[in-house]
């Protein structure tokens, strides 16, 4: 057993953790230690080449969390969470959207003072990632034709840069955090850590797992217990704060294992209660989606950034400026879930994935035992919102996708609809198919919800401090009080930037 001490101990060198580590260690007198469960991404082409993302799913660099049975959804979904420096930004598709103002203003209205759009949006300009619209050479002709067909069929505008200004609806090529010259990622690790790896006041402990936060009298977080790659254990002390950046699955898991969570649940598992915070692990949210697949008339051209380069936003409810349906357009037939349902595999095809930006079903995460090695249970409770909003969104999405597919110039590429097939037309049948073939875009969030200091369901206050424990903050996607309309990674990066300001005062 060995001991070391720093000013700040950051648990997880992932999307937010890398930003925080870089910013806090700008002060040469501040000693920062990042403890990351995975290896370095430096020089690892499997990770750095963005288009290889799909081969990382389920690999040794993926914690790969199953879900519990989903009676109204797909019980076979595996939630990828990256085990590598840069976290999910070293694993994902790096589609990059600044949050929409309405999403942030909703956070502020829910008690998160200081998280309104006017305060938070300027952090987008501070991000070091190279966020650019998909380069012309990477624009596949079928994706271009999808954009043209979507604008013609639905009357939505074509958007050339989704981050130029807030949008209500539209189709276009995404902005992506990448280097168009090399096709390499501009992950949080590449953008924030690679340039500063030789900073003497920054220590990276890789392949090192934090099993528990050490919480002393106060209660106050003093440090963490770790298991190193050689199997030895140790304690790493934080003289100022422990900053938990382990993501929406592992941050609540770590808090619970450390005695911070619902007291009754903790006692049942034999874990000593440090702070009774029933919100830990609750409010598990996601962007669920389904899929509609077409076979194409032979192979399509190969150029692409990561095979999902363009998309579409639709607004059904015009009383809200934000879109309420999203579609990724994939230049590959994403058929894992449809093949399991008996639909054929096809060699050449494309798909659209109707996605629920403001999903209303709420899930929860809990520990199955006090054993830190046992994966927590994830229950998203997909499609269980009482008003049926989520399932109706998928039904509407499947119909809108067909409208786009029936429109030239996309129509001429497509030979037939493979799944669900044109005979599936009623609301009931589209819902049944859509829910069984549902998937995730890997956006679990919200499990250490931020809220007003007196909100009993909140886990952290608007300065991201864990309620009831001094010297402890959570800084990652788990603090989302509600889900953003758009893909969340950029918001998570901005949380890292914001947290650095809050911590430095
Ligand atoms: C396949 C995939 C595709 C996605 N595509 C997009 C996209 O295109 N656009 C978008 O906006 N979002 C996308 N997302 C979601 C987005 O990447 C995440 O929401 C975001 O990156 C989460 O950041 P985080 O900081 O909360 O957690 P993470 O980035 O997951 O960081 C957590 C880090 O903590 C480490 N860790 C965890 N527990 C411990 C522990 N106990 N001890 C030590 N280390 C630990 C992990 O190894 C990891 O590095 C995608 C996600 C996935 C998985």
From TrEMBL:
Its cofactor is FAD. Transmembrane segments: none annotated. GO terms for molecular function: flavin adenine dinucleotide binding; oxidoreductase activity, acting on CH-OH group of donors. The keyword Cell membrane does not apply. The keyword Cell membrane does not apply. Keywords: FAD, Flavoprotein. InterPro entries: FAD/NAD-bd_sf, GMC_OxRdtase, GMC_OxRdtase_N, GMC_OxRtase_C. PROSITE patterns: GMC_OXRED_2 (PS00624). The lineage of its organism: Bacteria, Bacillati, Actinomycetota, Actinomycetes, Pseudonocardiales. FAD binds at residues 84, 210, 477. Belongs to the GMC oxidoreductase family. This is Oxidoreductase. Residues 247-261 form the Glucose-methanol-choline oxidoreductase N-terminal domain. It holds the Pfam family GMC_oxred_C. Gene3D superfamilies: 3.30.410.40, FAD/NAD(P)-binding domain (3.50.50.60).
